[in-house]
Design goal:
Shape: elongated
Number of strands: 0
Distance between the termini: 114 Å
Structural class: mainly alpha
Strand content: under 5%
């Protein structure tokens, strides 16, 4: 059985795109902080839900601030470790500078690789600054509380609706007895007390 393939037309010669300028370091740090804020907020939200629903702990603003700050400091430590690895990669690349890859492309250390350790260290400094910023931590905690309520509030409300007191068999069984007790004892005692006060002239 013969297989036939359509002849491929000439697609032209590949031309590599022009290298793009690197984004300013301030933009890199700003974007990293936005991503970190989102991640830490999610961690605080989950921590808050676990504290309230599983462990029954009361809301503690100070404890949540310390938790959020620790999350930022952990991100800073991770970023500094990555900066160290990037610096070692640069050192290895510089040892190979002047050689060529199997395809003939010369080995060079690209500008973005050279700048990577610097960017990572600046991002780590920004994380540490966020960990010490009470305004940032307070805003983050407020957002986390709102998200936690949105996540579990509906579930709690639906559970309460499903377990209304009026539908509780035990409550219904003793409701009439409690009402009779109130009418015969509590209400009667209140009327007698009022009559006694009226007889003595007390208002």
């Amino acid at each position: 059985m013969a297989f036939f393939r359509r002849a491929r037309g000439k697609v032209g010669t590949f031309v590599a795109p022009e290298p793009q300028p690197l984004a300013p370091l301030d933009d890199v740090v700003h974007d990293a902080l936005k991503i970190a804020h989102h991640g830490v907020r999610m961690s605080v939200k989950n921590h808050l839900i676990v504290n309230a629903l599983r462990d029954g702990k009361p809301f503690d603003e100070r404890e949540l601030e310390e938790f959020a700050a620790a999350e930022y400091r952990a991100l800073a430590a991770s970023s500094r470790e990555a900066a160290g690895r990037a610096q070692r990669d640069i050192a290895r690349g510089e040892q190979l500078t002047g050689r060529v890859f199997p395809g003939g492309k010369p080995v060079v250390v690209e500008p973005e690789h050279l700048r990577k350790p610097i960017a990572l260290r600046q991002v780590a400094d920004a994380y540490d600054a966020a960990a010490a910023d009470s305004d940032e931590l307070g805003l983050l905690i407020d957002e986390a509380k709102a998200e936690a309520w949105e996540e579990v509030g509906g579930t709690l409300a639906s559970r309460l609706a499903m377990n209304r007191i009026e539908d509780d068999p035990e409550y219904l069984a003793f409701r009439d007895e409690r009402l009779q007790h109130f009418i015969e004892d509590d209400l009667l005692a209140a009327l007698r007390e009022h009559a006694a006060q009226a007889g003595t002239g007390d208002d």
